[in-house]
Design a protein that fits this description.
The complex is a heterodimer of chains A (502) and B (317). Chain A is α+β, with helices and mostly antiparallel strands. Helix content of chain A is 30%, strand content 23%. Chain A is globular. Chain B is an all-alpha fold. Chain B has two domains: 72 residues, no CATH class; 220 residues, MetI-like fold (Orthogonal Bundle). Classes of the chains: A alpha+beta (502), B mainly alpha (317). Chains A and B meet through helix 1, helix 5 and helix 12 of A and helix 2, helix 3, helix 5, helix 7 and helix 8 of B.
């Protein structure tokens, strides 16, 4: 008896489902396409880019919901944002920004210089929880003499100031809504939040009163799909139109063969490193560091761990940057040389090291390949898998309890981390620090390029770490979709220029 | 009966208290600082300190434990550290996916397992029995995430009858929501149906061997009459026990299936919360799951009382 009743309930559920299917089929192709559904791997914890490091936040809100004084374009160049122009004083300490006319927030509030002052002062305040507080540390004062003008005075000249103001962490917010931006983001961008179905998707819709050029898309939905095989299925089933970062590189081949899709391989700011903990006496010896660099075949790691996606690098700099210098020849793959250097350093009978690996596949898979390559020169490595939380407290902070770790440093133009005295690498070079100071004090682009190249060379020759490869951005999108960023100079999915081809 | 109920309720409370303590201790010794995870590698020590103070991480563990339990007793589960919204709100949203998913999968499993299990028992050692048991063996052997992927490939990628995953909120109507739960429920139900049909079969066979069944047959009752009047009711006791265990397992087991179908359920939430070290969320969800298991066991006990009307009080002291 009981089973019969259950059977009826089930049949009813199935009939409802079938009816719904029919409904979908009927409306499917009826209207022209001005909406986009994009898959992203991680759901942001909240939507306030000024309070939290999660890249997942910027991947939804940057340029779409929130804008800054400047913006970084698809090529990584600084463009005017909410400031339409600026002048820089001769001593390079004072920046005078002229703001755009007719800019309003999503809630109708107008945007003027007092919002800029509020946003910057809030980000650099003592109680600020901005994840990139360092971007604002050089600011001495922010003044708003009239509604259209902002004057920012720096403590010392800073070559990257305009670039820094283009980061997602430096976007402009309204005093009235700043504290509730985490759940109800109110920015100046061309899209506004329509709905956030927690755990499933965020939907943005185009606003009518945007100050600039209106985007072609009426609405954009970001769907959260963490599982790599679910991402493939969602693309194949047509649930999502694009997946800007595929979770697993091995899945790309099947899309390359499919005319409905286009595979786009771009570059990112992610320098993937084998970090050598130079707080350990062993790695204070440059011979040992160089020996490890010689023991590693970078291309084999790119092929084995990333299925060929990625570019081997020789220093801490992104290959797409104009100031990039190819230094992969400084410490080429040469196991014999590695062995002899180890013997010279007094480790002829081998070494035992601990390598801590965070969750991404480049680290877990790369770690196994590196362990095999190190074994070939007599170094035994114990692989320890850790979660991000544990990596942060054990490796990055705290006691720095590790010998080796693999991690991709995804912040743009972050070579300066080698000058930080308390950084987890434990690296220190007076020569390098001097170059970084010079860069800070130099405005001339050609000179800056030379200095950046000098900095790269110092790191390569010191073997400050083993520089493995530049992480690739491996995306898949519908063949008729145009305007998505191919490269990722910053972590963003700027959809303001995206449209469907007929 | 009343003292029996009081006794069970006391056990329930004790189990929950033990669970809460265990969860809290385990989470306290887990490495990883929520503030560090939220602010990432670029954070300055000052912003970290500011966030830690904001999250109340500077209090001692004992104070944090009693704050939590005190709050729970008043119905206040605290705020999620990463999402910044009340945990109760977060969990309620997710339960709207996981609980219906588990219920649908459970109903499916029961609807399949009861008739087929009884059918196999009645046709013991005949081709029908072998067929049913063969399928059940297969259902046990297939992992549910793999079966889920297979369902997606057939019904979403090839036939386009269903979406490959995701969830249409209930607010948009029952149809789309139920539809998005159907494939995951099938994936989840398969192994449960397989287990349950085996239990039903052996429980039915056990009852057939009882003296009273032989007596019933001897006094001339027809086979179907014996089945419906004597066998089914008595066979239900062990079956209900397993069903109770299975329902609790379904809620927890939904984690894997929710990932395959990217459903915004409790499983996904707890995974995300663990990785983010959102301790408040993890604590409360685990407590909730423990509570659910205890509650289901309690309901199973009550169901015994209905199926088997003999008195319980003494036996359970």
């Amino acid at each position: 008896m009981r089973s019969k009743r259950f059977g009826i309930a089930l049949a009813a559920a199935q009939m409802v489902a079938l009816a719904a299917t029919a409904g979908f089929a009927a409306t499917g192709g009826a209207f022209a396409k001005d909406s986009l559904t994009m898959g992203v791997g991680l759901e942001p914890p909240h939507l306030d880019p000024t309070a939290g490091a999660a890249a997942a936040i910027d991947e939804i809100v940057y340029a779409n919901l929130f804008e800054g004084l400047t913006r970084i374009d698809r090529n990584g160049a600084v463009q005017p944002g909410l400031a339409e122009s600026w002048t820089i004083s001769d001593d390079r300490l004072t920046y005078t920004f002229t703001l755009r006319d007719g800019v309003t927030f999503h809630d109708g509030a107008s945007f003027d210089s007092s919002d800029v002052k509020f946003s910057l002062d809030r980000a650099r305040a003592e109680t600020s929880t901005n994840a990139q507080k360092g971007l604002f540390e050089g600011i001495a004062s922010v003044e708003a003499p009239d509604p259209k003008t902002v004057i920012v005075t720096l403590k010392q000249p800073e070559g990257n100031f305009l670039w820094n103001m283009g980061w997602g962490d430096a976007v402009m917010v309204d005093p009235a809504s700043a504290e509730s931006n985490n759940t109800n983001p109110v920015g100046t961008g061309p899209f506004k939040l329509a709905r956030w179905t927690k755990g499933d998707s965020v939907m943005l819709t185009r606003r009518d009163d945007y100050w600039g050029k209106a985007p072609a898309l009426k609405s954009v939905t970001f769907k959260f799909i963490p599982d790599a095989s679910a991402q493939v299925a969602a693309l194949l089933a047509g649930d999502v139109d694009a997946m800007p970062n595929m979770g697993a590189p091995e899945t790309l081949a099947q899309f390359e063969a499919d005319p409905r899709f286009e595979v786009v391989v771009g570059t990112t700011e992610g320098e993937t490193l084998l970090v050598l903990n130079q707080r350990r006496d062993l790695f204070k010896d440059p011979k040992v560091r160089r020996a490890i660099a010689h023991a590693i075949d970078k291309q084999a790691i790119v092929d084995g761990a990333m299925f060929g996606f990625g570019t081997p690098i020789g220093s801490h700099f992104a290959p797409h940057n104009p100031a990039y210098l190819d230094l992969t020849g400084v410490a080429p793959y040469d196991p014999e040389k590695a062995k002899s250097l180890l013997a010279e350093a007094g480790h002829a009978d081998g070494l035992k090291l601990v390598m801590k690996l965070p969750p991404p596949s480049y680290a877990r898979r790369g770690g196994e390949i590196i362990a095999a390559q190190l074994r070939a020169v007599g170094i035994e490595t114990e692989l320890v898998n850790v979660e991000w939380g544990q990596w942060l407290s054990d490796v990055f902070k705290g006691d720095h309890d590790f010998d080796l770790t693999i991690v991709s440093h995804t912040e743009p133009l972050d070579i300066g981390i080698y000058a930080r005295p308390d950084y987890y690498f434990g690296y220190h070079s007076d020569a390098f620090n001097a170059v970084m100071d010079e860069i800070r004090d130099t405005a001339d682009e050609a000179k800056r390029t030379k200095l950046y190249q000098k900095a790269q060379t110092i790191l390569a020759e010191d073997t400050a770490n083993v520089f493995l490869f530049q992480l690739a951005k491996t995306g898949v999108r519908a063949a008729k979709l145009d305007g998505l960023w191919e490269n990722a100079p910053i972590q963003a999915n700027d959809v303001t220029g995206v449209h469907w081809r007929k | 009966m009343l003292s029996y109920l009081a006794h069970r309720a006391f056990n329930l409370a004790a189990a929950l208290l033990a669970a809460s303590l265990l969860v809290f201790v385990i989470l306290s010794v887990l490495p990883g600082d929520p503030a560090e995870i939220m602010l990432g590698v670029g954070a300055t020590p000052e912003s970290l300190a500011a966030l830690r103070a904001e999250l109340g991480l500077n209090e001692s563990a004992v104070i944090r434990y009693f704050d939590w339990i005190g709050g729970v007793l008043h119905g206040d589960f605290g705020q999620s550290m990463t999402y910044g919204v009340p945990v109760a709100e977060l969990v309620l949203e997710r339960l709207q996916v996981t609980v219906p998913l588990a219920i649908i999968a459970f109903l499916m499993a029961v609807a399949v397992a009861l008739p087929f299990g009884v059918f196999a028992a009645v046709n013991r050692n005949r081709p029908g029995d072998y067929l049913v048991m063969g399928f059940s063996q297969l259902g046990l052997a297939v992992p549910n995430f793999w079966f889920g992927i297979l369902l997606i490939l057939i019904f979403a990628v090839q036939l386009h009858w269903f979406q490959a995953g995701g969830f249409a909120p209930w607010a948009d109507g029952w149809g789309p929501a139920l539809k998005s739960l159907l494939l995951p429920a099938v994936a989840l139900a398969l192994s449960e149906a397989a287990i349950l049909s085996r239990v039903v079969r052996s429980a039915t066979l056990d009852v057939y061997r009882e003296d009273y069944v032989r007596t019933a047959r001897a006094k001339g009752l027809s086979k179907p009459a014996v089945l419906f009047r004597h066998v089914l009711r008595n066979m239900l006791l062990p079956v209900v026990t397993i069903m109770g265990l299975q329902f609790a397992f379904l809620i927890a087991g939904a984690v894997v299936v929710e990932n395959v179908f990217y459903l915004p359920g409790l499983g996904r939430l707890i995974l995300q919360a663990i990785f983010q070290r959102d301790l408040v969320v993890v604590q409360n969800i685990i407590l909730l799951l423990a509570g659910l298991v205890v509650l289901v066991n309690f309901i199973v006990d009550l169901a015994y009382a209905l199926i088997d009307p003999r008195p319980h009080g003494e036996a359970h002291r």
